[in-house]
Amino acid sequence: FLGQLDIGIPVDGLKPLIGNAFVDAEAAGELSVEAVNRRGKHVTVRVTCTSFRGTEGAVTGALLLMESVT
């Protein structure tokens, strides 16, 4: 699914961050990546990843927060 996103962020670097959200539900991971915005400008994006939990507390996904830092 991540490979189908057309958002200019190299998703290969995000895969370990997302995988860890499923392994360690208490941990939050952070990574800075170089990306290209919709206007073709190179930007640095800080990505924070946490576990997304269902109503019974089981991890059902990963929540990604992306913030442009340049």
Helix content bin: 10-25%
Strand line-up of the largest beta sheet: 1-2-3
Biggest sheet details: 3 strands, antiparallel
| 3D shape | elongated
Q: What is the number of helices?
A: 1
Structural class, by secondary structure, is mainly beta
Q: How many strand units?
A: 3
- Whole-number average pLDDT? 86
Number of domain units: 1
Report how far the terminal alpha carbons are from each other.
27 Å
Pick out the low-confidence regions: none
Strand content: 35-45%
What is the subunit organization of this protein? Answer: single chain
Whole-number radius of gyration? 13 Å
Helix-strand topology string: HEEE
Name a few traits of the molecule:
single chain; 70 residues; mainly beta; three-stranded antiparallel beta sheet; 1 helix; 3 strands; 13% helix; 43% strand
